[in-house]
Amino acid sequence: MVKTFGATTAVDGLSLTARRGEILALLGPNGAGKTTTIEMCEGFQRPTAGTIRVLGIDPVTRPEDVRARIGIMLQGGGSYSGIRVGEMLTLAAAYNDNPHDPEWLIDVLGLDGVRRTTWRRLSGGQQQRLSLALAIIGRPELVFLDEPTAGLDAQSRLAVWDLVEALRRDGVTVILTTHLMDEAEALADRIVIIDKGRVVAAGTPAELTAGDGASAVSFDTDTPLDTAAVPVDGLEAVRPLTYRIPTAATPELLATLTTAAAEQGVLIRRLDVDHRNLEEVFLDITGRNLRS
Amino acid sequence: MTDTLHTRGRFTPGTFRPAPKRASASAMIAAQGKAETVLFLRHGEQQLLSVIIPLAALILTARMPVISEQTSLAQLFPMVLAIATSSSGFTGQAIAVAFDRRYGALKRTGASGVPTSTIIFGKVIAVAAMAALQILLLGAVALLLGWRASPGGVVLGLVILLIGITTFTALGMLMGGTMSSEMVLALANLIWFLLVGAVGWVMFAHGLDNAGWYTAIPTVALAAGLTDAFTGVIPWVEIAVLAGWAAIASALAVKWFRFEA
After folding, report:
1. pLDDT at A247
2. Chain B residues touching residue A76 (CB < 8 angstroms)
3. Is the dihedral of CA A119, A123, A124, A125 positive or negative?
4. Residue B165 in contact with residue B131, Cβ under 8 Å?
5. Per-residue b or e along A20-49, where b marks 16 or more CB atoms closer than 10 Å to that residue's CB
6. Could you say which DSSP state residue A237 is in?
7. Pick from B78, B71, B249, B228: which is nearest to B176 by CA?
8. Interface contact A98, partner B, CB < 8 A
9. Cβ-count burial of A54 within 10 angstroms (0-12 exposed, 13-18 middle, 19+ buried)?
10. Range from A248-252, B30-34, B85-89 carrying the lowest mean pLDDT
11. How many helices (H) and strands (E) does chain A have?
């Protein structure tokens, strides 16, 4: 699909498919076209070119039929400014014939203390949690979560991840956008990396982070290590207290390393074996320059 | 405040098994109308502009010593009804819709699968509820002050009032649905003062039964139309003016209305 705004191309020939019952993460920097893509799927924006099917329905011509079966968490939420948390959930529940109990959602999303607070007086994190509740209250087949954990504290984020995993376990398809690597890596069955409106990489987290042959061991220590006294080839200091061994990790290599460090009275504080994290993949693909 | 979240693995399997089922259209409209009405009636500024100020205007002007033959209750009550409905229909709806858009309420409602027509029905119900409250309160006070009309006049007056409410609501939707919330807050109140000032000035200076070209102003048209209607005369000119404004505002609103700010 393609979406242009005047001279700006937000989505540029992007094509993707989510499989039923999986968690698909759209990962990309700000302005990559993630939200535009999602909103075209939700029928809020009309693609300039291309076709979309959500649960077999065209959201351009039948947006209300699509939205009757999916759950949507809008980026930044959205609500009547003067409505109370309890009222908003009761209203959203009334749009459905067999909704989740608003009281139960208030409880599991930790909104009990603010049930009588109006939307505009909620903190960003509370608004996010209410928005998530609104997305799932109608027992949807598929949910779109646009930046579901933006602005959440660590505890809330874990609770949201837990809920998203429970959705997948029960057969709900989840499509979420994020610019958080750990979120995509921790949650997603498949990740689609988007940049400048295009898919630049796609695959499972394992596929995307698999080494490209440049295997290495890297570690940090609490005090300087005498590298000459460690019987390992190629060991070098990357910067003070951070070292790298440019060979594939083996159990024997790690035993040798930790023994040598112990003899010097040096504590290894962190040790990584050949696993490019998603952040490195992401930066390699999308470039290391800051976006305007 | 308990704002704590629960720890992992607390959802029993099957909790989120998909089973979407839309409520019936009537159930959605009822829920939407109830929510819109509660929000509209609970708004303090709305109550002030839509109920308190018209009530005060009715009581004060009726007791003014300068009251002359032509500014009797027969014209004061229609003027106050025009003030009240322009306030709730135009200013109230313009501000409410503008802030709904700013806070993403309409998009959120659409995201929940609510058809656009249901959202509009919800607004209509809220305006109708406010209008019923205004008619009851203002009508009761007017009766206490000595205002009288024939049953036929009352029915005709209610029809004209309905047309007027439609007109002002269409104008409110047009403004609230197309401009930024800051702009609406400033302009909707300013225009309301001008509309109220115009109807007051025409009544005191010319009399509502002699409004001439000022009838083109919607508040003047509504007040003059109500004055005729309460005496059993069908005010064709005023109906045409109100319908004209409603048609223009509706056409432009349908064309330019944006659900998002």
Report:
1. 80
2. 104
3. negative
4. yes
5. ebebbbbbbbeebbbbbbbbbbbbbbebee
6. E
7. B249
8. yes
9. buried
10. A248-252
11. 10, 12
Residue B68's pLDDT band (cuts 50, 70, 90): low
- Both tokens of B210, joined, read 């002699």
**DSSP-based three-state secondary structure for B260:** coil
ipTM of the shown complex: 0.84
Return the H-helix or E-strand segment holding A63: helix A63-67
Give the E-state strand segments of chain A in sequence order.
2-5, 8-12, 23-27, 70-73, 142-146, 173-178, 190-195, 198-203, 217-221, 236-239, 242-245, 268-273
**Residue at token pair 């080839």:** A233
Q: How confident is the model at residue A292 (pLDDT cuts 50, 70, 90)?
A: very low
Cα–Cα distance for residue pair A160/A149, rounded to 1 Å = 7
CB distance from B19 to chain A under 8 Å? yes
Q: Tens digits of per-residue pLDDT, B125-183?
A: 999 999 999 999 999 999 999 899 999 999 999 999 999 999 999 999 999 999 999 99
Q: Across A106-231, where does the E strand assignment appear? A: 142-146, 173-178, 190-195, 198-203, 217-221
Q: Does B115 touch chain A (CB under 8 A)?
A: yes
Provide mean pLDDT across the span A229-240. 86
At A14, list the tokens: 């992007």
pLDDT score at A133? 96
Strands A142-146 and A70-73: parallel
Q: Which of residues 131-160 of A touch B (CB under 8 A)?
A: 134, 136, 138-141, 155-156, 158-159
pTM of the entire structure?
0.82
